[in-house]
Amino acid sequence: MRTTLAAGGEATGPAGAPPVARTAPSGRWTAAGELPFPLVMLHGQQDCPVLLPDGGVLLAGGAGPALQALDGTALFDPAENRWTVAAPLRQARRMHSLTLLADGRVLAAGGITGTQAYPPRAVATAELYDPATGSWTLTGALHEPRHSHTATRLPDGRVLVAGGERQRDAVSPRALATAELYDPATGTWTPAREMGDARWHHQAVLLSDGRVLVAGGLTDTGRSRARELGLCEIHDPQTGLWTPTAALHEARCGHQSLLLADGTVLTLGGSGPRVADDARYDPHSLAGVERYDPVAEEWRPEPPLPSGRGHHRALLLGTGEVLVCGGFDAACQDIGYAAALRYDPGARAWSVAAPMRTGRWAFGAVLLADGRVLAVGGLARSGPAAPVLGAHLPAATVEVFSP
Question: Which residues have a Cβ under 8 Å from the Cβ of 290 and sit 6 or more positions away?
Fold first, then answer.
């Protein structure tokens, strides 16, 4: 039986949290040069680097130091620890999705273009990167502009894009329940059935049986305000239907969700509406971890993170353990964490991993073909902790974790 693990959200260190194993930190982070350009990836794992079939890594788009959309593209050679600037995107974009297709091409869809503005200007354009030619070409446009959506490659090769956000009018955004399917053979998008709940900044996980689990996120509450969701639903590509499933115990957005080796889903971290024991609002990041069983259709609490974190990254290692690295405390949003942890789903235990060389949040991370983990870019300091008050200090460095 396979299950999914969900972990954490915005919160202070949980009372009664199990201790982290006091062993020597495992693994090692080593420097791997610097990016050709500063890059921030604010969209969870959707806009993160893509591992290509030849073992190289593709970076495309993202945000610059002023959080403006970028058209930059770069290729990483893990054997040489070397970056090469590649052909730029046809349109600058951030908060977009990057999806590896079955034929080795990469689909970039939607996102925000231009400088930081409110409401964000979502785009409907999509383009394809062909590793054989090293070039980007426009493909069919989405039926609806969107950013902060999810894009999941289905077993039949199509790509399911779900949710996101777009402009409602000149002064407010709108969360989306709409979904679309991209067919790489024709280069066209087809409207799919809508989700039960409009959401953005959610997570989508391809389950072992080919269905797609969508968990958490943000939804609009009016007056340009949003709130975190605990609601979850499952898309069945065979029927095209969305079906509600058990809700998360803690509503959250900006979390990480990933499929474990046994088919369950782990969700951890992020932000959520939280009230402390004294009834005051608690703005800190969540530490709670949950695990979804697709057979029983239920979420079960797992041992929490030692402390909350958001905009972190979580990846499944070849050992079956989960590496959690980086992030920040949502109450401050100023200094990136260097701390890293490993979670053993079988033993249900946390242990300390070697800290990153550079604390960072909103960065990219991808599992390399040889089992190492590549971490790139992100933000090192922001707000009051930045060299210039209110500015953002990107982390241009690159590092690799060897388990």
Answer: 5, 6, 7, 248, 249, 250, 266, 267, 268, 299, 300, 301, 302
